[in-house]
Amino acid sequence: SVPADASNPESVVVSVLNITATLGSQAVLPCKSYRMVWTQDRLNDRQRVVHWDVYSTYDGDNKMERLCDMYSAGDQRVYSSYNERRIFMPQNAFKDGNFSLVIKGVVESDEGTYSCNLHHHYCHLYETVKIQLAITKKAEDASEYWDGEKPVIVALEGSTVTLPCVNHNHIWTERHSEEEQQVVHWDRQPPGVPHDRADRLIDLYASGERRSYGPLFIRQKMNITDTAFALGDFSLRISQLESADEGTYSCHLHHHYCGLHERRIYQVFVTEPVKEKKVVNLTTHHIAPAI
Question: Cys-Cys crosslink for 70: which of 76, 153, 223, 258, Cβ 3.0 to 4.6 Å?
């Protein structure tokens, strides 16, 4: 038998299921994750976008406004003509992870709560950083501090302010080959065998490569659909169940690029089929008495 690969990052157990099926039947061990659906990234930009918003209470008018946004494969866009060339993010933001917003010549109407929003649609990740900006007319009052929830910047009116938003996590700055980054493993532990001595059943890669282990009869009775990565469905089907199929099965989902490492555990029990009870219908024929 081939041992499970212990070199993979430790997975987070997200579910434990007990599955009971009868001898000779087919058991389906459900293992699905939308985050593992593989789609070719033709733009090679991972569908990443950053946008800055501000919630302002200036002049008693509470409003949320989109200031600017930028895609990793395109230019940044400023929504208000007033802010053109007045606010901007670094052009190389998606290379060095610096998404900070620069505001030139700040005025009182710039006060508010700013949010830097990072969206990674490919990995289904969303991160937000909030910063409070206040304006003062006195240079000695300019300062920066933490209010317990977010940074607060008190800036001198007319100065240039940088609202920090830095994230060096590789998913925002680097590119990898998708096929090499996604893999699914199925392992099995016979009763009484610990997890670190589990046998590997199947390796499935987004590139289409599939590796099955163990004796031929085991490989023929355990399978995953060929559309697994297209649908995010990596369920294991075990046909012609036998008592020897009992044990603990594990579905490991690894999306190294997106930082997804999940494990689903299944306790499989095989039972004898219930014998059908024979029902005997007794029919009484009524015979008329002789006269």
Answer: 76
Contacts of 84 (CB under 8 A, 6+ apart): 78
C-alpha distance from residue 40 to each of 96, 101, 206, 207 (Å)? 24, 32, 10, 10
The tens digit of pLDDT for each residue in 87-119 reads: 999 988 888 889 999 999 999 999 999 999 999
149 in Cβ contact with 81 (< 8 Å)? no
Reported in sequence order, the residue ranges of the chain that DSSP labels E, i.e. its strands, are 12-22, 27-29, 48-56, 63-71, 76-78, 87-88, 101-103, 112-120, 125-136, 143-146, 151-156, 161-163, 182-189, 199-205, 210-212, 222-223, 236-238, 247-255, 260-271
**Pair type for strands 101-103 and 87-88:** antiparallel
Q: What is the DSSP letter of 196?
A: G
pLDDT tens-digit readout, 164-208: 999 888 777 765 555 557 899 999 998 888 888 889 999 998 888
What string of DSSP letters covers 104-118? SS--GGG-EEEEEEE
